[in-house]
Design goal:
Length: 305
């Protein structure tokens, strides 16, 4: 994408996303709906000012990674585990119902081949954590029991979706289910979710120790982006959703972080608070880009009514 087209597209995305997001908030509706509507308005569905492009898609992905980082900062790992059984139940329903219903509809009414129908059903098991938690945050319910159940279920759904699609891909490629590769994938993702927050926390102590004594404006924001990019890359390298990288960094910054290391190391509350404060403008800029791009990715004119 040429630089003139890029900056114009970014201008339109930020402008219309902000305008319609604020308009929907004043109507007591989720700002997310306004931002997606903005994407539909300026995208191929209506005005056609912006078309989907790989560069914009990457920025949108960064936006949802930053959004999950901000959600992780406010999440209590203890309360997330307390909601475990309920989250698992909701996640199982969220996996089974789309897979069965969509698979059956695709097979019976769209007359797709059996494997294609199953693949489509499994593809729709994944949820959008970003949409769910942005709506919950606006309603000030993200720290409620319901918020933790929805968050836990959404994480499980996304991981399960990746595993299911991996199984189907292995079957389509080799004719075998491939339980061993899928089992290794589960272990890698589980190890990442368990080990990444403490590792990110240790890196926080390191970066705090080497912070220059003179006031360096932007130091905390730069360190935040370094950690987010590192752990998003690690998550992707392990075939997990990259947004989980942002989430685990947020957990590491959380005041409610729980670790055996806490008894030996002083909690870096002032440093992590500055990291949250200085990174908030980044979240405010990039998160709406994701939702506007969702609308841009739609082309409602292609729907055959």
């Amino acid at each position: 994408m040429a630089i003139d087209n890029f900056v114009l597209s970014l201008f339109l995305i930020l402008l219309f996303g902000r305008l319609l997001g604020e308009a929907f908030k004043r109507l007591q509706l989720p700002a997310v709906v306004g931002e997606i509507t903005a994407g539909i308005l300026i995208g191929p569905s209506l005005l056609g000012w912006i078309a989907p492009h790989e560069t914009l898609a990457v920025m949108a992905e960064l936006g949802v990674i930053l959004l999950l980082f901000s959600i992780g900062c406010e999440t209590s790992v203890k309360r997330l585990f307390q909601a475990g059984s309920s989250a698992v139940g909701v996640a199982l329903l969220g996996i089974a119902i789309p897979a069965i219903v969509i698979g059956w509809v695709s097979l019976a009414y769209l007359e797709l081949p059996g494997f294609t129908a199953l693949y489509l059903g499994c593809a729709l098991t994944a949820t959008s954590i970003g949409v769910s938690m942005r709506v919950m945050a606006q309603a000030k319910r993200s720290q409620s029991r319901e918020g933790h159940i929805i968050l836990g279920a959404a994480v499980i759904d996304d991981i399960a979706g990746v595993i299911l699609l991996s199984l189907l891909f292995n079957f389509a490629s080799s004719g075998e289910v491939g339980l061993i590769p899928s089992g290794l994938l589960i272990l890698k993702i589980g190890a990442f979710l368990f080990l990444a927050p403490p590792l990110a926390r240790l890196l926080l102590y390191l970066f705090r120790a080497i912070k220059p004594r003179e006031e360096e404006t932007g130091y905390e924001a730069i360190i935040t982006m370094i950690l987010i990019c590192l752990f998003a890359w690690l998550a992707h390298a392990l075939h997990a959703p990259a947004l989980l990288g942002g989430f685990v960094v947020g957990l590491a910054l959380s005041r409610q972080f729980i670790s055996p290391l806490n008894r030996y190391l002083k909690n870096p509350f002032s440093f992590t608070h500055e990291m949250e404060v200085e990174s908030k403008p980044l979240v405010d800029i990039f998160a709406p880009i994701f939702f506007v791009y969702v609308g841009i990715s739609l082309d409602l004119s292609q729907i055959d009514l």
